[in-house]
Amino acid sequence: MVIRKFETKTLDLILEQMVETVGFSKDEIFRIGEQCRQDYEQLTTELKEIKALVLQAIEEGDKLEIQARFARRRLSEVSKHFNEYTEMEVREAYEKAHTLQMELSINRSLEKQYRERRDDIERRLIGLDETIERAEHLVTQISVVMNYLISDLKQVGEVLEDAKQKQDFGLKIIGAQEEEKKRLSREIHDGPAQMMANVMMRSDLVERIYREKGAEEAILEIRSLKMMVRSALYEVRRIIYDLRPMALDDLGLVPTLKKYLQTIEEYHEKTRIVFSSLGQDLRLPSKYEVALFRLIQESVQNALKHAEAKVITVRIEIRRDQVIVMIKDDGKGFNKEQKKEESFGIIGMRERVELLNGELTIDTKIGTGTVVMVSVPIND
């Protein structure tokens, strides 16, 4: 096979395209951060209004409480000395006491709704603040990568002797960056972006339901809205984990897995996740921890999304010279011979294992669940 040779300028052109692609990705993340800041400002303004409404409801409630107390005393007096009052006076005392009690009940219900809305906004502000910080951190990291690409990688052409290897090197990086950018954009569009759009629509619906059907129906709609916000928060956290879990560098593989799986279980109430670790308590090289975390993450997400599993068991055993991982679920399984779009996830898992000189086996049949076994040797 003849390998076509080309000048170093060609590689420089590829590197310039890489820098442009990374710069575009940086701008995309910056725009996400700016959108989060705008949402943060809007929610801050709304929070001030809600707090004012809470105070107003409390003041009105206190006034109604005093009026209702006097009305009850008046009704008690009329009832006690019934013969001393006319039928009209008795009816007026009863109707006034009843009306004030109803107004007080509506006021308390409205105050409760305002308080719940206030608490919900405060939680959302915390989540947005975290997302903004992560976006800023990512922009900083990408800036470092761009500086590296601009300053150092332009000398790769002088180091690599084979032009074809230089071309493949650049194209693979560009392809990986493009795919990651598309995946992140697609997940944000299909996940949190859609959910937040629905939240805005449902929030308008709450007001209409309150006006047309009353407080009780509005409270039910608010509860449904809270579940939707909770799902959006989970999707944002999952995307952040997909980028890279920060705890992996600080705590190591096992603590990060434990925390990650607990979070996943909290947001999937119908699925129970059982995690156990065996063997030695030691830190692995970074490339092992990242690859093994991604393998387990991919397997668990497949079990949740495609297998509809009720119980997922994750077990990791760290030995002196080997790491063994098992991910088992009781889902509906699949046909390994049938090629589907999601099979690209399995291809990616195999590639990660092969890079570590490990072995990956998948045992599954339709209706019998799935068992994923990973064995990776540890080199000194």
Could you provide a short overview of the structure?
The protein has 9 helices and 5 strands. The protein has helices at 8-80, 87-151, 156-159, 163-213, 215-243, 247-250, 253-267, 286-305, 343-355; strands at residues 272-279, 311-318, 322-329, 359-364, 370-377.
- Which strand order do you get reading across the main beta sheet? 1-2-3-5-4
Low-confidence stretches: 1-6
Q: Average pLDDT value?
A: 78
Number of strands: 5
- Helix-and-strand structural type: alpha+beta
Computed Rg: 30 Å
The count of helical stretches stands at 9
Cα shape = elongated
Tell me the helix content: over 70%
Percent in strands? 5-15%
Main beta sheet, described? 5 strands, mixed
| Separation of the first and last Cα atoms | 37 Å
| Secondary-structure element order, N to C | HHHHHHHEHEEHEE
Question: Can you give a write-up of this model?
Answer:
The chain has 380 residues and is an alpha+beta fold. The chain has a five-stranded mixed sheet with strand order 1-2-3-5-4, covered by helices on one side. It has helices spanning 8-80, 87-151, 156-159, 163-213, 215-243, 247-250, 253-267, 286-305, 343-355, and strands spanning 272-279, 311-318, 322-329, 359-364, 370-377.
